[in-house]
Design a protein that fits this description.
The protein has 103 residues and is mainly alpha-helical. The chain is built from 5 helices and no strands.
Amino acid sequence: MITALIWVTAFVFFFNIPFGYWRVNVKKFSWQWVLAVHIPVPFIIALRFLTPIGFAWYTYVFLVGAFFMGQRVGAIIHNHRDKKNKIVTSCLVMDLYRTTKAD
């Protein structure tokens, strides 16, 4: 059960990085901002049902922490790329693709 919690926590963290990247590039509390924050939630709930971690109270600490840390790391990546004058849009995947194609 502990290994499942570690894997799900890691997935939640990495899954939220592109959404944090998107969130930081739009107006706060706009529809896009709300979507960037809330789209990952159903996937995380599905993971809870599909894995043995369930809805035990102690799992919330790990998953909520991973959620917000992933969002924050995405924002940090966006701001870092913006300061380096790299290609910056709302989509991390496409920005990375365009950067590697330009090199």
